[in-house]
């Protein structure tokens, strides 16, 4: 099974980096699966 993880910066109103959002996919399909957010989080 392939797992892909990326990070996306979150900026403040004055364009400074506040933090990062982690994004992941369980395969090559770049789509959001129709599953509950709690289930998706528990899979990470």
What can you see in these coordinates?
The chain is mainly beta and 44 residues long. Strands 1-2 form a two-stranded antiparallel ribbon. The chain contains one helix and two strands; from the N terminus they run ββα. It has a domain at 1-29.
Core attributes:
44 residues; mainly beta; two-stranded antiparallel ribbon; 1 helix; elongated
Task: Write the SSE topology.
Layout: E1 4-11, E2 17-25, H1 37-42
**Rg over C-alpha atoms, rounded to the nearest angstrom:** 13 Å
Low-confidence stretches: none
Shape: elongated
Helical content stands at: 10-25%
Q: How much of the sequence is in beta strands?
A: 35-45%
Number of helices: 1
**H/E topology pattern:** EEH
How many runs of DSSP E, i.e. beta strands? 2
Based on helices, strands and strand pairing, what is the structural class? mainly beta
**Physical arrangement of strands within the biggest beta sheet:** 1-2
- Straight-line N-to-C gap: 14 Å
Report the mean per-residue pLDDT as an integer: 80
| Main beta sheet | 2 strands, antiparallel
Oligomer: single chain
What would a concise description of this structure say?
The protein is mainly β and 44 residues long.
């Amino acid at each position: 099974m392939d797992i892909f993880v990326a990070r996306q910066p979150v900026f403040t109103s004055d364009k400074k980096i506040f933090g990062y959002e982690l994004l992941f996919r369980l395969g090559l399909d770049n789509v959001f699966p129709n599953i509950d957010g709690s289930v998706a989080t528990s899979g990470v």
